[in-house]
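Anyone opening a protein record will find just a pair of labelled lines. With that in mind, the following record should read easily:
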Amino acid sequence: MRYRRIVMAALAFVLVVGAVGALTGFRRQAVAGPTTGIDPAAFTNPVANPYFPLKVGTVLHYLGSDGGQRFRERLTITHWTKKIQGVTTTVLLDVLRRADDNAGNAWYFGEKTATYTRTGNVISRDGSWQAGIHGAVAGTIMPANPHPTDAYRQEFLAGHAEDQAWIVQRTAHVSVPHRHLDHVVRSFEWTRLEPGVLSLKFYARGLGIVLELDVAGGSEIFRLASVTHV
């Protein structure tokens, strides 16, 4: 399930944490797939990922559209935490669970989603998962030092959460309502669960995702409109 999609009024709690200081050479060693074992000691002194920072109190506001419908999205990095596999993760409101480790790699430990009708009734929790439960495995959202050709799983729960990413550029230029940005990382992201759908995402230093759009199989596009702090 692509990690930020709105169906009517979807609300997702995202858990985040850091990467692992022991993962020197991370880019070549850990990008092939999700890790099968998590060492809590590797998350004791998390370093912020430059392209996916998790500063508590930051609120990212996005404007988007899909199939002629317009959306507004608000992503809040909360002060709430949740312990998963011995790791204290940060909860993000309206996206997924992610993490920064001692080396600055951003990890993804799961997500709890709910899709509501206009009257407030939950109609689906599809795509929810948590590392360590029912065979789910933590993945990587963004390496600390991404380079073209890096490829990795972002999440894994067979049949429910199988997002993957491939870094193709780290010197892109992007203009969004928030402002013009240089030296942006560009990646292609997809999932086997949605054959034919391919998304292009741009990550900027100090911000995270600033632009995402479907380039095949869909029509979604979201742009960072503003950033506030609470």
